[in-house]
């Protein structure tokens, strides 16, 4: 009985975080008067692209490891992917708190591709958050049936978000003002 109460409380925290994090990010992105944190923040988009690349690799490695039944190693790799996701979020907020958004300068069909990639990336990043939090929680607590069920949604979405984040960065990087 106590275990179910703990699960309910943890899932409630996950639900709250799944709402609060996107709202806080949206509010911070909407701030017109940017905070001067220094020029070092201009390197954060590149760092986040590197983090997204590493995350995508870790996600694929995690899938390979679990298919090989290497559970302990899978757990370490996925914890690392989750940690990189946390770093990404912090660096993303710091960048947008201190720098204006960069407009995409491409024209023609590439512009449509960029915005399709960006919009689906943003939508999926919002949708995936509660699934990733649940997958991580269930995995840590060896709630294997729930973990496997939620990862069927979390894994492809998280991988998509990681890859499209890198694509968005590569496409917009020529337009950053340094």
UniProtKB/TrEMBL annotation:
InterPro entries: DUF420. Keywords: Membrane, Transmembrane, Transmembrane helix. The chain crosses the membrane at residues 12-31, 43-65, 77-95, 115-137, 157-177. It holds the Pfam family DUF420. It comes from the Bacteria. PANTHER family: DUF420 DOMAIN-CONTAINING PROTEIN, HYPOTHETICAL MEMBRANE SPANNING PROTEIN. This is DUF420 domain-containing protein. It comes from Lacihabitans lacunae.
């Amino acid at each position: 009985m106590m275990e179910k109460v703990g699960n309910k409380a943890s899932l409630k925290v996950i639900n709250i975080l799944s709402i609060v994090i996107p709202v806080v990010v949206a509010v911070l992105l909407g701030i017109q008067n940017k905070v001067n944190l220094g020029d070092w923040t201009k390197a954060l988009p590149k760092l986040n692209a590197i983090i997204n690349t590493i995350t995508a690799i870790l996600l694929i490695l995690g899938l390979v490891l679990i298919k090989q039944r290497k559970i302990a190693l899978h757990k370490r790799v996925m914890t690392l992917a989750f940690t990189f996701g946390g770093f990404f979020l912090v660096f993303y907020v710091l960048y947008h708190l201190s720098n204006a958004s960069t407009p995409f300068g491409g024209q023609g069909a590439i512009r449509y591709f960029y915005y399709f990639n960006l919009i689906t990336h943003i939508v999926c990043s919002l949708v995936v958050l509660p699934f990733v939090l649940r997958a991580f929680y269930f995995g840590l607590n060896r709630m294997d049936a729930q973990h496997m069920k939620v990862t069927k949604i979390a894994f492809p979405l998280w991988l998509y978000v990681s890859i499209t984040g890198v694509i968005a960065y590569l496409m917009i990087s020529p337009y950053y003002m340094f």
